[in-house]
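Me: Here is a favour to ask of a fellow structure person. Could you put it straight underneath, so I can go through it closely?

Assistant:
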Amino acid sequence: METKVLFDILGIPVTENVAWTWGIMAFLTAASFLLTRNLKRIPTGFQHAVELAVDGIEGFVVRIMGEKGRPFVPFIFTLALFILFANLASLLPGGVSPTASLSTTAALAVLVFIVSHGAEIKQKGLLAYLKGYVSPYAVLLPLNIIGEIAKVMSHAFRLFGNLYGGGIILSIVYMFIPYIIPGILNTWFGVFQGVIQTAVFVMLAIVYIQVRLE
C-alpha cells in the first residue's frame, strides 16, 4: 500500500506508515511506564485488568509451549499489543494501519524468525542448529532453507493481505454507498478482523518458536 511522504530526516523520507509505527511504539512505551510505576501488591482498578490480560497471555503461551515458553511471554505480549493497535489505527480520523504495509508485516515476521532461531541456537547450540538443515540427508539443505524463507514470507503476507484486502473492499464500497454500509464494514474490518488477525499472527509466532525448540 502506497503512503505519502510526510517529511525527510537527513534525506531519508518518512512516510505515513513509518510515522504511525513510531506513534504506536511511543504510545505503548508511555502507557507501559505509566501503568507500571505505581503497582500495588493487591491489584485494583485498571491494574487488575492489565494483570488479567498478562496472566491470560502467559497461560495461553504456557499451555501451548509448556514451561519453556514462559520466557517468551513478554515478547509475545508486546508483539500482540503492537499488532492490535496497528490493525486498529485506521479507525482513527486520518489513521493509517502500519500492518496494511508489507514492509511492516515483513519486519514483524523477520523478528519472529530471529527470536525463534536464536532461541533454538541458545538451547541446542550452533552446531546442532546447523545440523538440522542437513537432516536427515545433506541433499535436503536447499529445501530446508527454502522452507524457512517460505515460512517468513507466508507469515508476513497473511497479515498484510488481510489488512490490505479489507482496505480495498472498503474503498470500493465507499465509491458506491458512501455512508451507512461502509461504516458497518469499517467496524467489521477494523475491529473484528483486526483482533482476529492479531490472534492468528501471534498464534503462528508461538508455534514457530515451539517448533524450533522441539
Notes: The mean pLDDT is 83.
